[in-house]
């Protein structure tokens, strides 16, 4: 990891906490990803000034190039109501979305997907239009 813990904008942190609060704990893949995200939120570094937020860190609406077991993908990380698989807009509540939020360019992370645990490498992060 480039930074010692995930990095989030304070407003986005509060929004994510509100989104995951009603999701119950269970053994399903989705809930295990949310449980891991809950744990990461406990130690997240929070920024209140957007100008100070590192530009290489994934946040809501970031456009991200990732190397996955399925190949290199370009996705945009969005709120659940804005997700659209055809447009490659991935909800932060999906296994991939919850794996990426708060991580930085060049980070390699191990994450559990429907077909098993795999390494994901963050190749590029941008904050412009998709």
UniProtKB/TrEMBL annotation:
Pfam families tied to this protein: GreA_GreB
Source organism, top-level taxon: Bacteria
UniProt domain Transcription elongation factor GreA/GreB C-terminal: residue ranges: 55-126
Biological process per Gene Ontology, one example term: DNA-templated transcription elongation
Molecular functions (GO terms): DNA binding; RNA polymerase binding; translation elongation factor activity
Keywords tagged on the record: Elongation factor, Protein biosynthesis
Transmembrane segments annotated in the record for this chain: none
PANTHER family per UniProt: REGULATOR OF NUCLEOSIDE DIPHOSPHATE KINASE, TRANSCRIPTION ELONGATION FACTOR GREA
Record-given protein name: GreA/GreB family elongation factor
Lineage of the organism: Bacteria, Pseudomonadati, Bacteroidota, Flavobacteriia, Flavobacteriales
